Amino acid sequence: MNIVYFSKGIRGIACLEAVLQAGYAIVAVIGSGQDDELNTVCERNNLPLHMPEKPNTLEVAELLETFEADIFVCSGYNKILKPIIFNIPRLGTINLHGGRLPFYRGAAPTNWQIINGENEGGCCILFLDEGIDTGPIICQESYPITEDDNHQSIL
Fold it and tell me: What is the extent of the structural domain holding 20?
């Protein structure tokens, strides 16, 4: 299975490394803005890295089509993808989201779970649709949060 992986930040990179360790074929990585650690991971694993400023353009769609990916995977990516992009792969586009849905939609869900004093956090995998974290949920898991936890320890 060929994957195009969309990533930004430490959670996205941690998930990318887990996907690589599991043996999946990443054919390209799409990043956002300056991300030296993502660049390092891509160089170390010989992965092509692209950083489009505006990902929802015909030019980017045409580039993504050349990778012939079966699925797109997003984790930590900070841009909202439109149908012109997320409908490209035959299996769709999934998001590895760091919060329980529908309660923690949007950005920084891990941080918000800690800020709100949750004793139990969650994460889920869902398909992308035109909303923000509103697509069909594939799976959802819970985990304990202690008062000593922070964003890094939960990752």
Answer: 2-154
